[in-house]
């Protein structure tokens, strides 16, 4: 077979990434040879994949997580196009793992045909190799200003003949309007591929939601394939900064008498904030993303994470007062670690003629190194040790390199080459993912607690980050099996779109002419017949000629969502 499915969403962060991972894990446990795919991802959370030829390349972290759900190694083909925003107006373009250009909204259009051709060809290649490919959309397929030339949502589904399902996040409110509106703003050809819905993050009594499920099915002629409950145990790699709240993870109780409080600076162009997730997996470690100087002052450990715009984000630190708060924290002898771009910000000077093109700028001056940006990006998987004998591994994605200074290194490569820097309680490294090495993470946290004066903090001796990740993926698979109509999903994956699905007006809006203005709105109500009668909850009310009316309420009880949101 060569099955496939597109998981689209009503919005960004509606649950596409986790639902795709859950479906992948469910299929993997059924013995299906399955792979994930996202034609184009816009994210600064990436991971290095080393191909059979030994060449390193980047893909979005979400696709690496989904590959793990499939029980396979990540592959650059799983995310052929990765856009890494460096500012509000430009992004670096990574094509099949390699950075090829920097684009703006204007010149992206000229590059898009090449990107689309690569994405379509890559998906066809994967479908020939795997039994099923589960594709994740981007944003919403109803972003009508982007439909022309789209190759990640309905453009991908149309090209490959894929059935699509739409997931909506009920925590945001208005989920039924979002589901209906998503379909109703698509062309008839696109609508024909949308085969149903999934509702994400529901809390409360499902019985109170049932009338709404029946109504949306009646109004669209498409079933709700299931309702996924909110589950705080689902902690997987975030696709981008939207996936993160203020508090990372759900920390367990401390093994000792004190907590260790960690503040991670939420930089405007934060890159690979996933580094802090390993810290958050430890009992007694509270990890908080923040932009508040007061929270930096109150923290035991401060993490300055990676950035896609090191010099610009360093200027932002100074403008917001966070740079001063970081210096005060370090002057007090409390621990501070910089990772990749964060490490570069701690340097004495940064010479950047590549990303920002601002030349030499002063760093925070907390580590005795100079950093220079090279035109060629370093992409590597790295192995080595810390403290002489503690094994550590990670990956590198950076243009900057240490061009001056000879400090004590934080790590050493397997061949003994020094990496990073340490001065007292301040340290930094270019390696992402180092905290996923369990023994290294424990030793680091133990030292950090000592430097912060948290004598009552005791690191857990048995936390295995790989097991934490695997448990999260299994939890996603369990949720799919228990709460979705998996028979219906399998039929779609195996047999393709359901024929004869009804069209929902108005469809894709016509383009507005600069001379004639927008087309007249269709009359929804006959001037002689009056308004339509409200339909019953489960009666289909759509046709190519008319839109749905309001569904009659069936209960006056409050909705089933809880007040607490993630």
From TrEMBL:
<dbReference type="InterPro" id="IPR004459">
    <property type="entry name" value="CobQ_synth"/>
</dbReference>
<keyword id="KW-0169">Cobalamin biosynthesis</keyword>
<feature type="compositionally biased region" description="Low complexity">
    <location>
        <begin position="535"/>
        <end position="558"/>
    </location>
</feature>
<dbReference type="InterPro" id="IPR033949">
    <property type="entry name" value="CobQ_GATase1"/>
</dbReference>
<dbReference type="InterPro" id="IPR029062">
    <property type="entry name" value="Class_I_gatase-like"/>
</dbReference>
<feature type="region of interest" description="Disordered">
    <location>
        <begin position="501"/>
        <end position="566"/>
    </location>
</feature>
<feature type="domain" description="CobQ/CobB/MinD/ParA nucleotide binding">
    <location>
        <begin position="6"/>
        <end position="234"/>
    </location>
</feature>
<protein>
    <recommendedName>
        <fullName>Cobyric acid synthase</fullName>
    </recommendedName>
</protein>
<dbReference type="InterPro" id="IPR002586">
    <property type="entry name" value="CobQ/CobB/MinD/ParA_Nub-bd_dom"/>
</dbReference>
<dbReference type="Pfam" id="PF01656">
    <property type="entry name" value="CbiA"/>
</dbReference>
<feature type="domain" description="CobB/CobQ-like glutamine amidotransferase">
    <location>
        <begin position="261"/>
        <end position="440"/>
    </location>
</feature>
<dbReference type="InterPro" id="IPR011698">
    <property type="entry name" value="GATase_3"/>
</dbReference>
<dbReference type="InterPro" id="IPR047045">
    <property type="entry name" value="CobQ_N"/>
</dbReference>
<feature type="active site" description="Nucleophile">
    <location>
        <position position="340"/>
    </location>
</feature>
<dbReference type="Pfam" id="PF07685">
    <property type="entry name" value="GATase_3"/>
</dbReference>
<keyword id="KW-0315">Glutamine amidotransferase</keyword>
<feature type="active site">
    <location>
        <position position="432"/>
    </location>
</feature>
<dbReference type="InterPro" id="IPR027417">
    <property type="entry name" value="P-loop_NTPase"/>
</dbReference>
<comment type="pathway">
    <text>Cofactor biosynthesis; adenosylcobalamin biosynthesis.</text>
</comment>
<comment type="function">
    <text>Catalyzes amidations at positions B, D, E, and G on adenosylcobyrinic A,C-diamide. NH(2) groups are provided by glutamine, and one molecule of ATP is hydrogenolyzed for each amidation.</text>
</comment>
<comment type="similarity">
    <text>Belongs to the CobB/CobQ family. CobQ subfamily.</text>
</comment>
């Amino acid at each position: 077979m060569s099955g496939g499915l597109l998981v689209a969403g009503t919005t960004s962060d509606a649950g596409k990434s986790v639902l795709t991972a859950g479906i992948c894990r469910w299929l993997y446990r059924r013995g299906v040879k399955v792979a994930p795919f996202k034609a184009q991802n816009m994210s600064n959370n990436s991971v290095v994949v080393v191909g059979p030829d030994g060449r390193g390349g980047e893909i979005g972290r979400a696709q690496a997580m989904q590959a793990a759900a499939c029980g396979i190694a990540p592959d650059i083909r799983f995310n052929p196009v990765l856009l890494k925003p460096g500012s509000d107006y430009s992004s670096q373009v990574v094509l099949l793992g390699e950075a090829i250009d920097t684009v703006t909204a204007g010149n992206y259009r000229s590059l898009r045909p090449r990107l689309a051709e690569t994405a379509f060809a890559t998906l066809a290649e994967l479908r020939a190799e795997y039994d099923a490919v589960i594709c994740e959309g981007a944003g919403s397929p109803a972003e009508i200003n982007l439909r022309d030339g789209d190759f990640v949502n309905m453009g991908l589904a149309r090209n490959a003949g894929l059935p699509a399902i739409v997931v909506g996040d009920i925590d945001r409110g208005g989920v039924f309007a979002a589901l209906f509106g998503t379909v109703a703003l698509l062309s008839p050809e696109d609508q024909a591929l949308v085969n149903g819905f999934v509702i994400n993050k529901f809390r409360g009594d499902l019985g109170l939601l049932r009338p709404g499920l029946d109504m949306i099915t009646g109004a669209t002629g498409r079933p709700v394939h299931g309702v996924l409950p909110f589950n705080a145990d689902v902690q997987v790699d975030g696709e981008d900064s939207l996936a993160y709240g203020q508090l990372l993870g759900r920390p367990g109780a401390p093994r000792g008498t004190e907590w260790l409080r960690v503040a991670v600076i939420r930089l405007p162009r934060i890159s690979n904030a996933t580094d802090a997730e390993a810290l958050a997996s430890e009992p007694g470690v509270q990890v908080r993303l923040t932009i508040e100087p007061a929270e930096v002052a109150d923290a035991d450990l401060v993490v300055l994470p990676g950035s896609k715009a090191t010099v610009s984000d360093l200027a932002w630190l100074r403008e917001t007062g966070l740079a001063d708060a970081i210096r005060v924290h370090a002057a007090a002898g409390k621990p501070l670690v910089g990772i990749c771009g964060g490490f570069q910000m701690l340097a004495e000077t940064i010479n950047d003629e590549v990303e920002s093109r601002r030349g030499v700028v002063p760093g925070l001056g907390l580590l005795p190194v100079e950093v220079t940006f090279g035109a060629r990006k370093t992409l590597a998987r790295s192995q080595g040790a810390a403290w002489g004998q503690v094994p550590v591994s990670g990956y590198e994605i950076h243009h900057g390199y240490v061009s001056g200074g000879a400090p004590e290194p934080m790590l050493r490569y397997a061949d003994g080459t020094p990496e990073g820097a340490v001065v007292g309680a301040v340290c930094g490294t270019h390696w992402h993912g180092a905290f996923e090495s369990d023994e290294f993470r424990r030793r680091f946290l133990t030292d950090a607690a000592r430097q912060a004066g948290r004598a009552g903090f005791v690191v857990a001796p048995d936390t295995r980050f790989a097991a934490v990740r695997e448990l999260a993926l299994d939890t996603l698979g369990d949720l799919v099996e228990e709460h979705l109509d998996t028979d219906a999903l399998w039929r779609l994956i195996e047999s393709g779109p359901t024929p004869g699905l009804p069209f929902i007006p108005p469809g894709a809006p016509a383009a507005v002419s600069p001379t004639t203005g927008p087309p007249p709105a269709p009359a929804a109500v006959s001037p002689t017949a009056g308004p339509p009668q409200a339909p019953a909850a489960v009666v289909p009310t759509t046709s190519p000629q008319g839109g749905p009316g309001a569904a009659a309420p069936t209960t006056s009880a409050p909705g089933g969502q809880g007040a607490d949101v993630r």
